[in-house]
Amino acid sequence: MENQTKENRSPFIKVRDYIAKLFDLGEDIDKRGTIESVNKYIQIKGYNVWILLASAMLASIGLDRNAPAVIIGAMLISPLMSPILGIGLSIGINDRETLWLSIQNFIVAITVSILASYLYFMITPFGSMTSELLSRTEPTLLDVGVAVFGGIAGIVATSHPDQTNAIPGVAIATALMPPLCTVGFGLSIWNWDVWGGALYLFFINATIIAFTTYMFVRVLGFPFKEYQDPKEKRKTSFYIGVLVTLVIIPSIFILNGAIKDDTRKRIVDTYIKKLNTPNRDVSCQIQTFSDERALVRIKVVGDPIPKDSIATIKEDLTTYSQLIDDSIAVAQLDVSKNDFQLLRKEITDERMRDLDVLMQLQQERLAEVTELKNRIELIKGDSLPVDDINKELRAVFPEITSLGVARLNTFETREEAKEKQIPIFYMQWDSTLVDSVRLDFENRARDYLQARLECDTVAFVRL
User: What phi and psi values does residue 330 have, to the nearest 5 degrees?
Assistant: First the structure.
């Protein structure tokens, strides 16, 4: 009867049920395992501190040398995500002890990262403002969106019983380490606009990731560690809402300013292009100030623009781009037609050389990213399901008294040289076994392991 009822459902209900099932996380969530997994990596001490220091130094070098591949590598190994997830989770399940521990380690992580980057930028022979540094000094509302989806990916990946490699992807998306290293750079040159903007970007990411984790935990009904009465629950929700709002509001104004600047630039560029002729090259540069004023410098090379036309240009730009007349400056360089054509050719040749250099840099960066990806795949491929193999072998061969596993890297010497990894199993058998029986067991174990690990060579070392 129930099956018949399901068959008689309307197509709309079937589609609705299918979509609900498609996005349902309830069946895949391991709540206890999620809490244990987050708590396991909250503390920043020992090897975690060294990884954090290495990540901060890598990110600083990448920012200093304008190398995105190096910055990506730094974000892949950064352990900054764990204390932030711990804050959101502990608030969601009312675990005050874990909350305090997460905040402590969050502060430690911030301090270590900023100090490491500050020391680097104090001693580096370069240390100039690069595009990678500049891009992390003016956070907007779009960065809030990045943090939201980064937080969703982080907690969903952590809560799944078979955890995936989504955490490194989250680190890339949310970019927690580079903003902190930009703070170190700003402090080294004592520039408020740089380190203040970068620190704000970091706190946007951290706050929104923690908030997303909190919402995820509450929507899926994670169990409270300590009972939270309705009054206390409302108070907690209010404080969280106020904090998130205070963090987001400045980014809205910054985004609004960025949109105005971009719109103004497009209007001016479109207008300026109309002034170009075969014997005249007109370009402009727009400088925006903190009080939303802007200065437009118009450079004319070739046939000069008549003075009455300059007045019209200023009037048009004032009308279309909301600029004031005093903010428009026109500089003209009067050259002959032949000199202009020669100058244009030199400019074109120079731009082509710059383009070649840019393409070469892009190829180098692509090669770095490819190499990094190959290294990551190699590291992932190095892992063997040791625990599972140990249990399976002992179930089939109880005569094994001890078992160890290692990998041997070899290189083929042919023209197409490839790295090859051979699993090595160190086995100790029951001393009462006779040699013929032990040899038979080893042969059977070798056949099983070759099929189990999908490799054609397995080495045994008898202990």
Answer: -120, 125
CATH tag for 386-462 (out of 3.30.70, 3.30.310, 2.30.30, 1.10.3470)? 3.30.70
DSSP for 368-417, please give it: HHHHHHHHHHHHHHT---HHHHHHHHHHH-TTEEEEEEEEEEEE--SSS-
CATH architecture of 261-370: 2-Layer Sandwich (3.30)
Q: Length of the chain, please?
A: 463
Q: What is the reported pTM? A: 0.58
Sequence spans of domains, the chain:
2-228, 261-370, 386-462
Identity at 333, one-letter amino acid code: L
pLDDT digits (tens, 9 = 90+) for 420-444: 667 777 788 887 878 788 888 888 8
> Are β-strands 294-302 and 280-288 bridged in parallel, bridged antiparallel, or unpaired?
antiparallel
- Report pLDDT for 169: 46
* Domain 2-228 top-level CATH class: mainly alpha
The pLDDT of 59-87, averaged and rounded, is: 83
At residue 379, does pLDDT exceed 60?
A: no
Rounded-to-integer distance, Cα 365 and Cα 354, Å: 16
Question: DSSP labels for 305-336?
Answer: PPHHHHHHHHHHHHHHH---GGGEEEEEE---
